[in-house]
Amino acid sequence: MRIHNFFAVMSFMLLLLGATAKAQTTASTGGPSGGIYSCTDSRGRIITADRPIADCIDREQRELNPSGTTRRTVEPTYTARESAEREERARQQSLLQTRQMEERRRERALLVRYPNATAHNRERTEALAQVDAVTQAAKTRLDELSLERKKIDEEMEFYKSDRSRAPAALRRRLEDNAQRMTVQNRFVGEQEEEKRRVNSRFDDERIRLHQLWAPEAGGGK
User: Fold this and answer.
1) What is the DSSP string of 19-72?
2) C-beta of residue 145 within 8 angstroms of C-beta of residue 180
3) Measured between alpha carbons, how far is residue 194 from residues 110, 140, 183 in Å?
4) Given strand 36-40, what is the order of strands in its sheet?
């Protein structure tokens, strides 16, 4: 009789353990014991079920506790193409946010550097003056080369009938002078272009600064 009772107790315990394991497995896989699922389908209907809802596979679902509070959020299931599109949108959004942050950083730096129109005008004037100084130095050098060329031409007058008879040293001086004048003329042209770039930069900055100065107490006026 005692042996029979022993086996009966053992059988009951095994059944109890099996039921507990099944309940835990069901809960972990989202089965009937895993909670209540709720979503709003494509037609606007609120659907609830004791397992993930097939009609809402493309949208977010909530798994609810017995009390009705949200236990967790179940993300939609996406195709490979949809996942790639979502990743690309997220990447573009991240790039946009980065650009916006960088733009705000540049604006703050611009305001620190140019708190008002006077400061901006002063730096434009200084920048242009530096370009003008370099240009003037190049023009002065061109004047020197022109005088040098005049002297060379005077010496070449003796050989105007046949320049090939001029001494090699004189011909080299003539060639060297021509090359240096070409370089200086090109440099002067580059400085004129640099002056246009400087003015363009300050013009663009001034447009942006007017917008940034506006909230300040008449800072751009």
Assistant:
1) HHHHHHHHHHTT-GGG-EEEEE-TTS-EEEESS--GGGTTS-EEEEPTTS-EEE
2) yes
3) 21, 19, 16
4) 46-49, 36-40, 61-64, 70-74
Residues of the chain with pLDDT > 70, as a percent, come to: 81
Dig out the tokens for 30 from the structure: 């989202």
Query: Model confidence over 64-99: pLDDT tens digits?
Result: 988 889 899 888 887 778 878 888 999 999 999 999
Distance CA 34, CA 69 (A): 14
- The span from the CA of 145 to the CA of 183, in Å, is 11
Interior CA angle at 168 toward 163 and 173, to 5°? Answer: 90
For the chain, domain boundaries: 31-77, 79-113, 116-213
Neighbours of 21 (CB within 10 A): 10
134, 191 Cβ separation under 8 angstroms: yes
